[in-house]
Design brief:
269 residues, binds S-adenosylmethionine, alpha/beta, 23% strand, Rossmann fold, 8 strands, 8 helices, single chain
């Protein structure tokens, strides 16, 4: 693995539980997130912000014959990605705003859950687009925390969920970036853009979604920010804890539901 030194802190952090959460969530959502992606064999693909390789695995399994270069700024995540994936991808530690590649090097770029954490997502898209060959594509998948609704909706659960949005705004990034994807891709000078919503719906008729998404992805995300929420006094501790407990109870109940929408943008340059 090549190394470029630079420290970064983002809202979810790099605790082992958070890194496990990314892997589990990618497993649960693999058909939704990767179903429409088909990179031809022989193409060179850049994965920007690969983290622990949770999506890297599916990029390789579902697109046989590609050459994959996966970059992230976080060394610990990359080491874990490399251990999980082995020689399937070439891993590089680098800042995606200034990657050490010549212009027009790649056929495709894939970026998932990263733009929402960046202070300058448009600059990032422009930097990544410059690495594409003419006609190359950039696929960006982002969530939008404003798209979530659920039942039962207790006041505490709603308040706890809103803390994620507030915390993300206070650190860096935009948890509502999904709705901005079209505009950002357009501003990055894409010639063609197609944005599609990717809805996730959980109810007890889909126990794997209640467990893998409502509990492990959504509640897992809240558990990961608990210390920061309480340290910043975004919510009274008892309200926060009741809200998280209410969401856990929802995911185990026989009538709870949770709805969330991701957005997938494909831009051609
Ligand atoms: C929420 S994780 C998503 C990881 C992976 N794409 C996935 O779907 O599991 C966001 C990742 O973006 C990385 N990241 C944030 N800013 C970055 C930057 N400027 N350059 C490269 N990676 C960055 C973080 O280190 C983290 O691994």
């Amino acid at each position: 693995m090549c190394v470029v030194k630079r420290a970064v802190k983002y809202v979810h952090g790099y605790a082992p539980e958070e890194l496990d959460r990314l892997v589990g969530s990618a497993d649960t959502l693999q058909n939704l997130l990767h179903g429409a992606i088909a990179y031809p064999a022989g193409t060179l693909v850049l994965e920007a912000g690969c983290g622990v390789g949770a999506q890297t695995r599916f990029l390789l399994e579902r697109n046989p014959g590609i050459t994959l270069v996966s970059v992230d700024i976080a060394r610990e995540s990359l080491l874990r990605a490399q251990a999980a994936i082995g020689r399937g991808a070439c891993f590089l530690q680098s800042d995606l705003y200034r990657l050490p590649f010549a212009p027009a090097s790649f056929d495709h770029v894939f970026i998932c859950y990263v733009l929402e954490h960046l202070p300058h997502p448009l600059d990032a898209l422009r930097a990544l687009a410059a690495l594409l060959k003419p006609g190359g594509t950039l696929t960006a998948i982002e969530g939008d925390h404003g798209s979530a609704f659920f039942y039962p909706e207790t006041a505490e659960a709603l308040a706890a969920w809103r803390c994620l949005q507030r915390l993300q705004l206070q650190t860096s990034g935009d948890g509502h970036i999904g709705r901005r994807l079209y505009g950002l891709l357009k501003a990055s000078n894409a010639k063609k853009i197609r944005v599609a919503p990717l809805p996730v719906y959980c109810d007890p008729g889909h126990p794997e979604m209640m467990d893998g998404f409502a509990d492990k992805t959504i509640v897992g995300m809240l558990k990961g920010i608990e210390d920061e929420v309480l340290a910043r006094e975004l919510l009274a501790p008892e309200v926060w804890r009741k809200g998280v407990q209410d969401l856990i109870a929802l995911s185990k109940s026989d009538d709870g539901t949770f709805m969330y929408t991701f957005f997938q943008g494909v831009a051609q340059y």
